[in-house]
Each structure stands twice: as C-alpha cells, then as structure tokens.
Amino acid sequence: MAVFTRPRQAFVIAGALGLALSATACGTGGNDDSNDNAGSAECAAYEKYQGNDGKKVSIYSSIREIEADRLEQSWKQFEDCTGIEIDHEGSGEFEAQLGVRVDGGNAPDIAFIPQPGLLKRFADGGKLKAAGADTKAMAEANYPADWLKYSTVNGTFYGAPLGSNVKSFVWYSPKMFQEKGWAVPESWDDLIKLSDTIAASGTKPWCAGIESGDATGWPATDWIEDLMLRTQTPEVYDQWTTHGIPFNDPKVAEALDRAGTILKNEKYVNGGFGGVKSIATTSFQEAGVPITTGKCALHRQASFYANQWPEGTKVAEDGDVFAFYFPAIDPAKGKPVLGGGEFVAAFADRPEVQAVQTYLASGEYANSRAKIGDWVSANNKLDLANVPNPVDKLSVQILQDKSAVFRFDGSDLMPAAVGAGTFWKGMISWINGKDTASVLSEIEGSWPK
C-alpha cells in the first residue's frame, strides 16, 4: 500500500522489501545518458516509450520510506529501457507542500494525488495538464469507468489511478471461526445474527477504535460511507458527497443509525477495551488486536490494516487473521465497494512526462509493482498470480469483480472543512453519546456556502 498523507492511510509499512522485481536488467541504469539496450528482448514492452533518452521526470507524492524504495524498484526497468530518469520525492507534508510548490511556480512534473477533491482544485485552477491521448486510451482500456470519473473534471481527463485500497472489509480469526462453528456472513442480516451469536457466547463480537491524533474520528466516517452505499443507491451516495442532498437528510441518518446498531451497542462493543465510549480513545492501529487474543471476533477496517497486526501474525485464509467482504444488505442488488487510491496527475506535458504517465497506467507497470508485494490496483490487466499477499489478492478480486460497484472514500470527495473536519469531529461526538440528528445538523451547517 502507498503511504498517503491523510491519516487514514498514513502509516509506514515496516519489514523487508518482500519479493524482488523479477526482470530489471536491461543493461543500463536510469541515470545513464546512453540507452544501448533499448532494442533488447527485455525492453520490447517499452518500445512505445522510446525517443526520450536522457530526459528527467520529477514525481512528488506522500509515499515514503520502504514504499518509496518499492516504487523505485517498480519502474527501474522502464528507466533502463527508455533512458528516462524518474526523480521521486516523498513527503509527509505532501498536501500542504504541493500547493505551495504549484503556487510558487515550482510544481513537480507529476504528482500522485490521493484526494479527488484536491485534484479537482488544481484542475479548476488551470494548473494541471490534460492527460495525453495515449494515457487516456491506456486508462480507458485498463480501468473501470467508476475509477476514471474521479480524475475527470468538467469532461477533461487528467490521469489514471495508481495504487488502490479496499475499505469494505471485516477482519476476523479463521481459527476462532472454525473452533466455534461460525460461518462468514453473506448478508447484513447474517452479520447481525453472527454478532448476536458471538455476544451470547460471552465474547464482545466487535472491537473498534477511531483515535488517530489530530485526525481522530476518520475510521467512523468509513463506517458511515460503507453504510450509505448499502442503505442507498450509488447515485444517492454521489449526491451526498457533492451536497446534492443535505448532510442531515433522512437517508444519511438512516446510514448513521444503521452503523449505530453495531458501534453504539454495548452488547457488541468494544471487545478488549471497554464500552461504546472507549471507541473514541482506542487508536485505530490497536483497535483490531484483541482478535488475536480472543477478546473480540470482528473488526471493520480497510485492506491496509493487514500491516497493523502484531509481528508474527499470519494473515491468510488459514492464518491467525484474515478478512471477508463487508456484506451488502441485499446481495442481489450488487456488491458495493468503498475504497481509496491515488491518481497520476501531471503539471507538465513534455513528451517524456506523458510517456511516464502512460506507462504508469499500463498493465506492465501494474504487474511490475505487484510482484514486489504489498500493493493493490484496480488495473484490470493485473494478473492475480503476481499478487503474493493473500489480502491484497482478495482486494484485487473484489476490484475486478464485474458485479462490484465502486465508490471512492466519501470524506476525500468532500470539501476539506467537512471531510477532514466536521465529519471527523461529529463522529467523535456521536460515539460519545450525541444524537444522530444533532450531529448531522452541525455537519450540514459547516458545509461551505
């Protein structure tokens, strides 16, 4: 997974680099002005990007440390075979500094932008360059339309997605389920029946935590977004994130109250930590850990939570922990999927920049990065055989499922004052006992006029 600036995704994955990139040797390094092996068999896949030997392309993102190393591995063969040098810089202050750089006339050639709202802001300001015809064609061939609309502003397409994550997951212990004779639920009703069964056994079924420093509250917003997708149509979800319906609309209240049947139910939460109010003070990193000690059975969190388990925890279908799809209320009506990711947007349109942008939308790139490990993409050319991590494999299967209806994280689509402000804060108040109507009315009142 990418290390994003937003706290819901901002964690550093520790550990070894995992699988090495299998095919990286084309003879010359990305920093070499010569490109002697461009015509070699290993470089055949990169013929369409030739003609830019010795050129440099700068990329700015929030991806740091081990993940940045993996990025550099993933495009090394492209550099070697094309002679284009990619200069990547990752920053923990990406969102704030990107604006400063752009406004100061020091924009990077390319930025990996994880918030569609931020991408739109730069597009509306005339700062972004429209994606070239090759990039657009590659993206349309390799990504579902549900994804491409998030980097399309006023009819202009600005860049393909890169990495992705799936948020519609519930974590559990396969061993515990097998010992107890519990089955993975296929519907919301099944999930509630399972929760009742677990509660009756003397174990709190759910553990949860929404503490995240200055960003405390964000994990609860993901619950509401997932329930909006399950109680309403995708079109209503879109209206909600764009303020086509008010934040205190009865449809939003229905989703919040549905989430409350779990999160505000003292019989259900908060295994290993306390009662309902302990959710507000339990860190999201630690929230699922009681599953490993049998103190709770279920934890709703995104695919990236695979990296939060204690060292030595086996994450697999037959392991200590694994995840299942957060079930729909009516599975017959489709498979709603909540997720996130980043988009490859360009502030320059030189030929070498367009070549990099096109390559990053390709199946060759997706498979190159996937082989290194700990990465998910909605690219439909990604071969599951190249995805080593079991949860990542499950995520890709969900993203490639033709019945899936994908929607981007709602708070990332909303104005920052709401999505990263009053929505987060409102969820804290709600967990601490404030009623649904009051919380939603306060958030509605904060929406920029």
Automatic annotation (TrEMBL):
SUPFAM superfamilies found in the cross-reference section: Periplasmic binding protein-like II
Family: Belongs to the bacterial solute-binding protein 1 family.
Entry keyword set: Signal, Transport
Signal peptide extent: 1-25
PROSITE patterns on file: PROKAR_LIPOPROTEIN
Protein name: Carbohydrate ABC transporter substrate-binding protein
